[in-house]
Amino acid sequence: MTEASTRWRPAVAEPELACPIAPVVDIVFSRWTTPILWVLHEYGRQRFVELARRITTITPKVLTQRLRQLERDGMVTRTQHAEVPPRVEYEITDLGRSLAPLFAGLAEWGAENLDRVHRARATYDADPTRPLPG
Amino acid sequence: MTEASTRWRPAVAEPELACPIAPVVDIVFSRWTTPILWVLHEYGRQRFVELARRITTITPKVLTQRLRQLERDGMVTRTQHAEVPPRVEYEITDLGRSLAPLFAGLAEWGAENLDRVHRARATYDADPTRPLPG
DNA sequence: CGGTATCCTTTACGATACTG
DNA sequence: CAGTATCGTAAAGGATACCG
C-alpha cells in the first residue's frame, strides 16, 4: 500500500472528552492548515504552485497532503481543468470562509497579547532555577 | 543532558511569513494545551493529579512538559506548598483567561459546522476515485 | 504526591528524484 | 504543471519504572 493511500487518522482522539473544542482544533489547527486557509482566503482561488510559492517553506508532498485533508473536510475545493499543461485550482469554500471571524479574533489576540507572552518567556528563562519545558 | 532540560523550540518557525496568526496558533493550539487550559478554566485551581485525572489519556511526562510550557508562556501559574506530602497547584492566569472568548467562538463554530465537516468527509470517502489524505 | 528517567514507537516531515 | 514515489531523519509522544 502506498503512502498516499494510507487512511488518515486524527492526531488527537480522546482529549475531546475533557475539552469540547478539541475536535475543532484538530480540524482547523493541525500543522500547515492555518497558512493554507489564510493564503486561500487572502489571495483567492489559485493554483498549486502559487500556493507553494506563497507558503515558502512547504514541500509539494506536504502541501498535497494538507490540501487533500482540507478538501475532504469541505474547507477547500479542487478544480481540475482538462488542459495541457494541466491546470488545477484551489479555492476556499463557504465553510472555510466561515472561520474568518475566528481567525480575525486570533490575530487581534496576538496583537494585544503576544508581547506579554514573550515577556513572560524572558522572565521565566531569566530564572536559572526553573527548568525549561522539554 | 536530561530530556527535560532540552531547550524548547517552536514546532513551526516560518509559516508565519504567509500567515500572521501562526505565532498565536503555535502558542495556544499545540497539542494538549487546549484541554489543559480548558480544564483549568472550567474547574479552577487544581493539583497535578486532578488535571491528570480529568485529561484521562495524558501521561505524567507530557502533562509536565505542557504545564511547563504554559507556565513559561504566562498562561498558567504553578504554586508549590511546603508540605508533606507535597502539594502543587496550577491555576490559569488572566492572560490564559483572555482566550476564553476565542475558545467560546471555536465551540460555537463547532456546534454549527462540525456536522458539515463530517458530512463532507463521508461524501469524499464515498467516492472511490478520490485518494484519501495521507 | 508530583514528578523524572529511560526506552521505545510512531508519525510527521524534509529531500530528492521522477512522471503523466 | 501538478503532483507521486521513495528514502531518511528527527521530534513528539507513549509505556514503564522509579524517586524525594
Task: Tell me what the structure shows.
The structure is a homodimer of 134-residue chains. Chain A is mainly α and 134 residues long. The first copy, chain A, has 2 domains: 20-95, Winged helix-like DNA-binding domain superfamily/Winged helix DNA-binding domain (Arc Repressor Mutant, subunit A), CATH 1.10.10; 99-134, no CATH class. In chain A, 51% of the residues lie in helices and 10% in strands. Chain A is built from 6 helices and 3 strands. Chain A has helices at residues 22-28, 33-43, 48-54, 60-72, 94-97, 100-126; strands at 46-47, 76-81, 87-92. The first copy, chain A, has a 3-stranded antiparallel beta sheet with strand order 1-3-2. Chains A and B meet through α1, α2, α4 and α6 of A and α1, α2, α4 and α6 of B. Chain B binds a DNA duplex (20 and 20 nucleotides) through residues 2-4, 9, 11, 31-32, 47-49, 52, 59-65, 80, 83-88.
